[in-house]
Design goal:
Layout (H helix, E strand, L loop, with lengths): L71 E12 L3 E5 L5 E5 L5 E4 L2 E2 L10 E9 L2 E9 L4 H8 L4 E2 L10 E3 L11 E2 L2 H14 L4 E7 L5 E6 L1 E3 L2 E4 L5 E5 L1
Parallel strand pairs: 3-7, 4-7
Antiparallel strand pairs: 1-2, 1-6, 1-11, 2-3, 4-5, 6-7, 8-13, 9-15, 10-11, 11-12, 12-14, 14-15
């Protein structure tokens, strides 16, 4: 493994970061707002660390038994703040702080070319994919993005409502919500499928953290988003194009 990872140690602690709560206004790192078209969030009142591992979940559409399980595949993007022997921290374009833990199997890219962990330095814009537990990501892949991508993300994120302690929940629906969508249905997606859906959601709505991807019965995806006041659910079709979002 890379030289700075030979001395990898377990991160001493993960800073507690408040994220947006449910429609009730309760602040929780794992809550989501209820959709105006349905009665309950696919992750409402459940912790991303609760229930079963994503490895035990199917990536095909179907029943809802695994839709609230976690930790699960997801990711985030932002600018690197600090680097340690075991990982690094980033701040998203909406101001969310994220802790990234690296492992011996973490891979690194710069653009489309392979690189090493040494490419991760303070000030670099990065996309991180991996297993998400609240606002901590155990990275499977880290991509150093082109210079200026964070400025572009900040502009794109104009529709994202950053988290603010005590702020009222934002109730809004944009685009298309799958006609057969029922909150709590579907199964956790993993691997390449989850990565593609996560990247699509982060490109359209940068600033938060994708803490799970749920494949619906029609083959489309609900991407669950935390760390912002809006959106909390981003919908991605089978071609991995964002088609809608709501609270």
């Amino acid at each position: 493994m890379f030289s700075r990872k030979l001395t990898m140690s377990i991160v001493a602690g993960v800073a507690a970061i408040a994220v947006a709560g449910c429609s009730s206004g309760v602040v929780s790192a794992t809550s989501s707002s209820a959709s105006p078209t349905a009665s309950a969030s696919p992750a409402a009142s459940s912790s991303p660390a609760a229930s079963s591992s994503p490895a035990a979940s199917s990536s095909s559409g179907g029943g809802g038994s695994n839709a609230r399980s976690g930790p699960a595949a997801g990711g985030s993007s932002g600018t690197v703040d600090s680097v340690s022997t075991s990982g690094f921290t980033i701040t998203t374009s909406a101001g969310q702080k994220v802790t990234v833990d690296e492992t011996s199997s973490t891979t690194y890219e710069k653009g489309t070319a392979s690189t090493s962990a040494s490419a991760i330095t303070a000030g670099e814009p990065v996309l991180v994919l991996g297993t998400v537990n609240s606002t901590t990501i155990t990275a499977t892949q880290v991509t150093v993005q082109p210079a200026g991508s964070e400025e572009s993300a900040a502009s794109t994120a104009a529709g994202v409502v950053p988290f603010k302690q005590g702020a009222p929940a934002t109730s809004k629906t944009v685009g298309q919500i799958p006609a057969d969508y029922a909150q709590g249905s579907g199964t956790l997606a993993s691997g390449t499928t989850a990565n593609k859906a996560t990247e699509a959601a982060l490109a359209a709505y940068p600033g938060g953290v994708v803490d799970r991807v749920v494949e619906l019965s029609n083959g489309e995806y609900e991407v669950h988003y935390i760390g912002v006041n809006w959106p909390h659910h981003i919908f991605v079709n089978q071609d991995f194009k964002v088609i809608g979002a709501n609270d």
